[in-house]
Amino acid sequence: MRAVYFDCFAGLSGDMIIGAQLDLGLDFESLNQQLLSLGLDGYKISSRRVTRSGIAATKFDVEVDEKSHPARTIADIRSIILRSNVSQNVKDRAISVFERLAQAEANIHATIPDKVHFHEVGAVDSIIDIVGAMIGFESLGVDRFFCSPLRVGSGTVETQHGTLPIPAPATAQLLSGIPVYAGEVEGEFVTPTGAAIAATLCEQFGPLPQMRIAGAGYGAGSRDPKGFPNTLRLVIGAIESVNTMGSAPVGYPSTFVSEEVITVIETNIDDMNPQIYSFVLDRAWALGALDVFLTAVQMKKDRPGVLLTVLCKPEAADATINMLLAETTTLGVRYYQTGRRILERTIETVETEYGQVRIKVARSGSRTLHFQPEYEDCARLAAEAKVTPLEVQSAAIAAYRSKLKI
Length: 406
Known about the structure:
The chain is α+β, with helices and mostly antiparallel strands. It has helices at residues 14-23, 28-36, 74-82, 88-109, 124-139, 169-174, 192-201, 275-286, 317-327, 375-385, 389-404; strands at residues 2-7, 43-52, 55-64, 144-147, 150-151, 153-154, 156-159, 162-165, 180-181, 187-188, 204-205, 212-220, 231-238, 241-242, 256-269, 291-298, 304-312, 334-342, 344-352, 355-364, 367-373. It has 3 domains: 2-238, no CATH class; 260-342, Transcriptional regulatory protein pf0864 domain like (Alpha-Beta Plaits, 2-Layer Sandwich), CATH 3.30.70; 344-404, mk0293 like domain (Ubiquitin-like (UB roll), Roll), CATH 3.10.20.300.
C-alpha cells in the first residue's frame, strides 16, 4: 500500500500540504479543474518555486476576495462539497476534516457543531486547502497516513476572536492526544486546517515508519525566517507488512498482509424499534463503515438487547459516532482503535453460460488463497435463466478454476 509521512519539522498547514503534493508531481491544472467544480468564486490559486534556507520548495497560494464570501456553517460546506464533481473518496475525506473542525470549534465555544459559523477556517481558502489536499492524496495514490510530532510554535496570534495563545484553542483541541512541541522559533506553525487534516487522516504519530521511499516533496510556508527551513516535507512510498507474530506452524507459510489501524465503535441498545436498525446500518455504510453488525446480548433487568458494532477508518469515526447518538436511542457509545490485518483483495470477472460473474479473490503476494463468486451477480443471473443461484455459483467457480488452471 502507498503511504505518506508528514514530516512536520516546521509545522503544518493546508497550503503547505498542497505545495508539497505539487512538488511530488501533482498536476496543477488537474487540481484547478477539480476545484472549479466546487462552484466557488472570488478566489485565485497559483504556485511558484521558492527556497527556504537553501531548500527548494513549492509555494501554493490562494488569493481571496474576503468580502465576497460569507461565514458558513458545516451544512453549507457539506453542501458545497457534495454537489461538486470530485470523487466520493475526496468528498468523504474532506467532509470528515470539516466535521472534525466543527466539533473542535463547538467544544471551544460551548455549542453544537451545526451552530458553528466558520470564519478563518471556513473561508474559501480553507475549503480550497482541504478539498485540494484530499484531491492531491487521491491523485498520488495514497492509502495510509503517518505523521511526525508536530511543531506548533509559541507566542500569540491575531484572529477575529482577538489575540489568542499559540497553539490556538481550536488547534489545541484538534491535537488532543497527539505529540507536539513548541520549538525555538516564535509564531504559529500549525494552523487549525493543518491540525484537522492530520488528526483526521493519520493513524500514527511518531518516527518515520519502515517504508520504501518513492519520493519527497517540500511545501513552503509563507514566512522565511533566517536560518530556518520553513517547509513541510511529505515522504511518500510503499509499506509492505508481513506476519510478525512468529514462525508459522508447519503447513501454514507466512502470509503477506496489509496492516492498518481501524476504529471500533460499539453501543448496547434495548429500547429501540427494530425497524430503525436497517436505517441506521445504511447510514453507517454511507459514512464509510468497513463493517456493521448486530449481536444479541442480555442486558440489565433481564432485557434482551442488541450490541451494535461499527468498524471504520479513524477519519470516519467522529461522523459515525455523531450519527449513532442522533439516530438511535443510545445515551452513549464506546470507541477504541485497534489493528487489523487484511489480505490483498481484488475483483475479477469470469464468463459463464449464464453471463458475467464477478469473483472476489484473496491473495498473498502472487499466491491465490481463496475466491468466491459475488452472490448478487449469481442471484440476478439465476433469476434471468430460471435456475438456482447454486448452479450459477458452480459455473463461476469452474470458470475461475479453469482460468487459474487448477
